[in-house]
Sequence to fold (373 residues):
Amino acid sequence: MENYDYLIVGAGLFGAVFAYRAAKAGKRCLVLDRRNHIAGNAYTEPRHGIDVHVYGAHIFHTSDKRVWEFVNHFAEFNNYINSPIAVYRDELYNLPFNMNTFSKMWGIRTPQEAKDIIASQIRDLHIENPKNLEEQALSLVGTDVYEKLIKGYTEKQWGRPCSELPAFIIRRLPLRFIYDNNYFNDRFQGIPMGGYTEIARALLDESDVKLNEDFLEFRKRGNRLGDGTEVSYKRLVYTGQIDEYYDYCYGPLQYRSVRFETEELPMEDFQGNAVVNYTDAAVPYTRIIEHKHFEFQDTPTTIISREYSSEWKPGVEPYYPVNDETNGNLYDRYYDKAREEKNVIFGGRLGTYRYYNMDQVIAEALNLADAEF
Ligand code: UDP
Fold:
């Protein structure tokens, strides 16, 4: 029998940060992950001299100084600034929507000209209180930007019409009237040199980690690991899907999943940028990432991943919660159940069913650690 203070399910950022703080507080932690690697969806893997973001682009950005200082203890961050390109049919635009985008779209030069065009498009629409993503987007950016750069991409990513999606998703997209292609507004941004996996490894250094261990199987076996070892623990930190933890007793929550087609190409540079979005509904993938550009890696070949969005079903990895009203109500029922638990803490994107960025997950784990220790 092995005795632990904390059993942490999931070796992603939430679990790893919590494990680090717990170990620092003298607690004994066991971290289980059902995959064969740590770092969750932030996992990166070196291939042919390139750090591959195996589960899609992970760009670290935050305005939270505490979180920035925290992550900088575990890796050196480079000066990468995310400046995606959008391809719509044979047209190419800068993202986020800024003066470079508007100037290309309308052949104009000044912020006032762009504001006037957008304002006149918005006026013609007569949208009073935007009720969904489509109305929200239209009332923020007008018709042209919506049709060319938002509609197709969003419907591919979420697999639903924009008119059935919650408005808040689009608030992630800033609209700028200066010539500035930095996708994020945050004060700090960069990519950890050497990849995210190394951060997770450093965070988990003082904890016991067991990979290929499915907590639900472990629970069914009466808290026994695959090798038969019995485990006891005082508290559980669960970062998997909250609905799965409760055996889907109220029904499954919806998630979006992503499938990547990754290939190595015999050329130095495929697209000249880390992220290129395909905003036209006719192209089946949402974006192509070219991994070497995240860390400015100089290699004779390149690795790209085409990203296809799909509905989640058991057996594939969940990526995004679908935070619409139906799922929100369902989550509330699970949350009420979770609140009654004395010794179980739910955390991370899946445990709390929130569309969190990495920095938010880390902040949540640090706050929880502050409360616990
Ligand atoms: N989006 C869009 N066009 C784009 C990129 C993003 O309309 O070219 C919208 C879309 O609704 C998407 C949201 O912005 O769901 C957030 O996209 P982002 O790429 O920031 O999210 P990530 O997938 O990286 O978490």
Notes: The radius of gyration is 22 Å. The chain has a mean pLDDT of 96. Residues 86, 95, 149-150, 153-154, 157, 169-170, 172-173, 277, 279 surround uridine-5'-diphosphate (CB under 6 Å). DSSP finds eleven helices and 16 strands in the chain.
